[in-house]
Design goal:
Shape: elongated
Structural class: mainly alpha
Number of strands: 0
Number of helices: 2
Distance between the termini: 17 Å
Largest sheet: none
Helix content: over 70%
Mean pLDDT: 92
Length: 59
């Protein structure tokens, strides 16, 4: 399960970064500025929180 979570987290990160490169409004530093970007960033952030939380609990 942890590997699946890491895989989904990394995929969400790639999709978010790809979106920021293509979108004229969203940036990596200022965050989402469009509805699609907001949805992608929210998914990335939730998966990142879950993954990092699991890492902390495992220590």
């Amino acid at each position: 399960m942890a590997d699946d979570l890491h895989t989904r987290y990394m995929a969400a990160a790639r999709i978010w970064h790809k979106h920021t490169s293509a979108c004229g409004s969203c940036t990596k530093h200022e965050g989402p500025q469009c509805s699609a970007g907001a949805r992608l960033y929210e998914s990335f952030a939730r998966l990142q929180d879950a993954y990092l939380g699991r890492q902390r609990r495992a220590r």
